[in-house]
Amino acid sequence: MTNTINFKQSKSKIRNMRKLPETMNLDDMRSMVSHFPDMLRNPTPDPDIIGICRDYHRDGIEGLCFLGMGGSLIVGSYVKEILSQESHIPIDIVKTYFLPKWVSKDWIVVAISYSGNTEETLTSLGHAKERGSRILTITSGGQMAKEYSRYPQVIVDKGAQPRAAFPVLLSEVLPISESLIGVKITNLVKVSENLISASKTWGESISKPSVIAQKIHNRIPLFIGAQHMSPVAYRAKCQINENSKAEAFYSEIPEATHNEIEGFPYNEKGSIIPVFLRCFGEDSQISRRMDITFNLYKEIGLNPIDLNSIGESKIDSMLSLTHYLDMVSVELADKRGVNAVSVTRIGELKKRLAFKG
Ligand code: F6R
Question: What is the pLDDT of residue 89?
Fold first, then answer.
């Protein structure tokens, strides 16, 4: 069956290779995390891709849907939060094989897969193609690059772990999304400079990453966020899982205060250590709830940790703490004596799934 391609053919273009920084060592997670601010620098979003997105905006969009999994899709969750107060259209996140019915041909589907070979992402993207949704893909290659080369596509450099390439993917997906919904494009060069300044204050405005790694070593961190700090909490949980090869959980306030709060044992020391992610300009109701919950956990004897982001804007707060917690996960990997880059179980699972015999 031939599918409708809803973009102007003359404007379609494969964007040529977005390069990873040359000084970055792809076999060393510490080097990749240290290059976080550099990877974010994308001074001029590709004018052809941005042009296509602006056309889509002008023609009308009913919703924006991000498809993907793991280290690639987390970018969509960040963008959704960054744009939540500005977007007049719904922004949906799909991290499974199935596309909700409401994602129609009038929606834009942005699929993000670093490898381009992720089964769930390719399946849900196939559904979007069948429905005639307008599609954009962001990948370093694989099946996605081949199969969707006739659609607007951003190709990024291969070789990094998807989770380490997060800033590169964000630097593409954010301006694309801003153009699609018709708001001003964020100055990521400035954000990158702010991140460099923020990281220079580690050890002063915030404890050194190694200190926090020591506190959560041999415990199970539970990262707690609210509003735009929720994806940061989720990212931290995933980085501890994948980089430090350790258990970690995340939860969101206010919801956690209606259930999770009851789960901690009363008179015995558990292994969970709550880590509250706080930010400048927190909503007053959220702030109150966070403070009270923190104190309750302290009284129970959980020794909760409070981490304050550096920076005043939403994006600075989110990324400063993300960069910091990425480094905490590397420090923890060192303490645990594990290789922060390899993800052998994820690889094994993908291999077994690919074997259809
Ligand atoms: C590995 C990682 C994983 C992958 C996920 C999806 O570094 O972060 O969570 O991101 O398995 O694969 P991709 O990103 O290639 O679509």
Answer: 97
- At residue 250, φ and ψ (nearest 5 deg) are -145, 155
In the annotation, is 127 catalytic? no
Q: How many domains does the structure of the chain reveal? A: 2
pTM summary value: 0.94
Contact assessment for residue 318 and residue 228, using Cβ atoms and an 8 Å cutoff: yes
Sequence-separated (6 or more) residues with CB below 8 Å from residue 266: 300
Shared-domain flag, residues 159 and 217? no
Do residues 156 and 227 share a domain? no
Ligand 1 near 121 CB (within 6 A): yes
Q: Mean pLDDT in the chain?
A: 92
Q: Is 114 in the pocket of ligand 1 (CB under 6 A)?
A: yes
Domain co-membership, 109 together with 253: no
Q: Do 143 and 268 belong to one domain?
A: no
- Ligand 1 pocket residue status of 79, Cβ below 6 Å: no
Q: Which is higher by pLDDT, 268 or 197?
A: 197
- The closest residue, in CA terms, to atom 12 on ligand 1 is 118
Per annotation, catalytic residue among 178, 242, 282, 331? 242
What pLDDT is attached to residue 43?
Answer: 62
